[in-house]
Every structure is written in C-alpha cells, then in structure tokens.
Amino acid sequence: DSGVTQTPKHLITATGQRVTLRCSPRSGDLSVYWYQQSLDQGLQFLIQYYNGEERAKGNILERFSAQQFPDLHSELNLSSLELGDSALYFCASNKLGGGSEAFFGQGTRLTVV
Amino acid sequence: AQSVTQPDIHITVSEGASLELRCNYSYGATPYLFWYVQSPGQGLQLLLKYFSGDTLVQGIKGFEAEFKRSQSSFNLRKPSVHWSDAAEYFCAVGGPGTASKLTFGTGTRLQVTL
User: Which of B44, B50, B51 to substitute to test the interface with A, most A CBs within 10 Å?
Assistant: First the structure.
C-alpha cells in the first residue's frame, strides 16, 4: 500500500459526460501529480500541484482540469468525454516535487462508451 | 525539455537468466533518476532511485542500476530473473525543486519463460 488513495477504482460513462476523479496523497506529501496511461500513448504526465498551486503542466487537454484543495487532496475533472479518453488515470504524490520519488495510487480505470 | 527513452518495448528472458533494461535520458542538469515497476492492474512501485553519489544503486527485489553520465544512461539490471519479475518497467527522470516533474519513458514489458 503506497498510502495514495484514488477513488473510484472503476468508472464507466457515456461520451459527452463529465466525471471527477479524486486523489488523497500520502500523509505529509505536498505535491500531487496526475498521469494518464493508455495503450497507444503510454504514461503521460498531465499536471502537477504543489501545496495548492499548479506547478507544472503536461499534455493536458483543455477539456480536463484539476485542482488541489487546502487539505491537499486533488481532483481531476474530465468533461465532454470522448472514446479516446478511456484510460487508466494515476495520481502520485511526493514531498518535494521532482526531487524525490513519487508514490502512486492504484489508479482509476475510466471507460467511455 | 527532459525526456526518457526506453528502446526496448518488449523483452523475453528465461527464468534464472540475467536481465538488463535500457534507459537513456535527456536532462539539462544533474538528473534524478528512477526505476518503477508496474504489475498488471496495479500502480507503479519504486524499485530504486539515483540522486547523487555512488553511480551503482541497489534497489528492492534484487535489482540494481548504474548511472553513466557520459552515456546519459541509467540501465536496470538483475543477475537472475524470477518468474514473478514479469511486469512492465518504467524509467523516469526528475530534478530538484518543487516545480520539477517526473518524466517517464514508455516502458519495457518483461516476459519471463520457465
């Protein structure tokens, strides 16, 4: 158990819908990352937050947004969903950003039908 | 921009044989390097990390990796592979500072034959 909790574990939704994925980081970790893993794209970095502020952005679509709350949990919002958004979405956390190892949650498997 | 290349998409080895998974990175300063393993349906687990010092680092499950600055490489090795090592392996590069991020390679899938 990495200490990073992601909910829900599985999500099935229709195209055009909006979903929210939740991540609770390890106790004491200030930095949260979101990654998307699909068969054709591999592991793609989406966005990083550090202590409530956005710190780095990757290949995140405009239809996607995220935030980190004062209690340090984070949410990833995916809207106007398309079939191609079906993927495994991982949250990871660490204390210092890229300078320390990140601990990964078990992921949320999103299926868009 | 930082990047990681794992040239081997899929590798098959026999149980008991040695293993080397290749990783090449691009990073503008001294990199922080990591290897992660992902078993089917699971999240990524850290195998080992390199920040500074001894260029040969030991990790969990009998894995080791060697940092070679001149070759921009951080290859993962194991002297004798077990069937339970079958998984996907990811190399990642990061750096200091709270604004830095981890960049992952596309992974190498390891199959172990008995």
Answer: B44
